[in-house]
Amino acid sequence: MAKKTTSVLPGFRLTLGYTVLYLSLIVLIPLACAFWKTSELTWGQFWHAVAAPRVLASYRLSFGASFLAALTNLFFGLLVAWVLVRYQFWGKRFVDALVDLPFALPTAVAGIALTAVYAPHGWIGQWLEPLGIQVAFTRLGVFVALTFIGLPFIVRTVQPVLEDFDLEIEESAASLGANRWQTFWRVTLPMLRPALLTGFTLAFARALGEYGSVVFISGNMPMKTEITPLLIITKLEEFDYPGATAIAVVMLVASFVLLLAINFLQWWSHRHHRPV
Fold first, then answer.
1. Does residue 22 fall inside a structural domain?
2. Which of 259, 235, 261, 238 is nearest to 248 (CA)?
3. Which CATH number belongs to the domain containing residue 96 in this structure?
4. Contact (Cβ atoms closer than 8 angstroms) between residue 68 and residue 148
5. Among 48, 64, 123, 148, which has the minimal tally of Cβ within 10 Å of its Cβ?
């Protein structure tokens, strides 16, 4: 007689049905509606909406600044997580709580604060202006805003892995003659690589959809500092719903492809650097 297997979760089929229903209502149906709305356009109209020079400029700024901001946070986020885990110092809890500030701070407040600080007469901007460096109302300001909102994703993804990391592995590498750099590069970093890729993915995705903090510091100049989410909002205010959804679909497809590629790299890294 075959042994009957029981599910760990009672009512699995029912809960699975609710899960699929919830995800459909929140995620799948709204995304499907975006594609359906875009289908009202002919191919020529669709191409004109998504490939206009102003739209292409916003793509370059949004994807480029988001990638650079996530890449910058990849380094500094690892550094912050390393300091918080490996060292004890006065005010550590305050610094640890400060990392989460971009999570809790409304994006509009973050944008106003960054603009006030980096404006030509701001606390930091007044010292940068004589050097010929302008942050507010430039592409550099967009990069600063996206870096600000993306840092916690790297830190909070890497920090738990560092906390669970067995220091005896590093000590074993040192006892075998490895210096600190070799130990970090060949022992520690491979263990952190999946977490780093996950944090990079989250920071990159978050930056792509950022709106509130960027519109204040960027200046929103077409062809220069206009991000794609702002262009979508502009289309909606002009009642050009098919055009807005067409741009949104391009962002959706491009983001999905990039995230899929990053997830594949994460899977490959985990498979080829699995600890023995």
1. no
2. 235
3. 1.10.3720.10
4. no
5. 123
**Sign, CA torsion 209/232/37/246:** negative
Residue 11, domain member (yes or no): no
Residue 274 confidence class, pLDDT cut points 50, 70, 90? low
Neighbours of 197 (CB within 10 A): 21
Contact 154, 199 (CB under 8 A): yes
Segments forming the whole domain that contains residue 245? 28-106+139-272
267's tokens: 């899977």
Handedness of CA 197, 198, 201, 204 (dihedral sign): negative
Whether residue 125 lies inside any domain: the answer is no
Q: How many CA atoms lie within 13 A of 165 on its CB side?
A: 23
Q: What are phi and psi of 52, to 5 degrees?
A: -65, 150
Are the C-beta atoms of 227 and 214 separated by less than 8 Å? yes
Q: How far is CA 187 from CA 25, 87, 134, in A?
A: 44, 19, 41
| Count of beta carbons in the 10 Å neighbourhood of residue 85 | 16
Our count of domains for the chain comes to: 1
State the pLDDT confidence band at 222, using cuts at 50, 70 and 90.
confident
Question: Does residue 177 lie within any of the structural domains?
Answer: yes
> How much is the pTM?
0.85
Q: Residue 155: pLDDT above 60?
A: yes
Q: Please state, in angstroms and rounded to a whole number, the distance separating the CA atoms of residues 133 and 117.
A: 14
| CA distance to 70, 75, 180, 199, 232, per residue, from 185 (Å) | 21, 14, 9, 19, 43
* In the block, residue with structure tokens 């909606």: 236
Tokens of 237: 């205010």
Chain-centre distance for alpha carbon 78: 15
pLDDT at 99: 92
Q: What is the number of other CB atoms lying within 10 angstroms of the CB of residue 148? A: 23
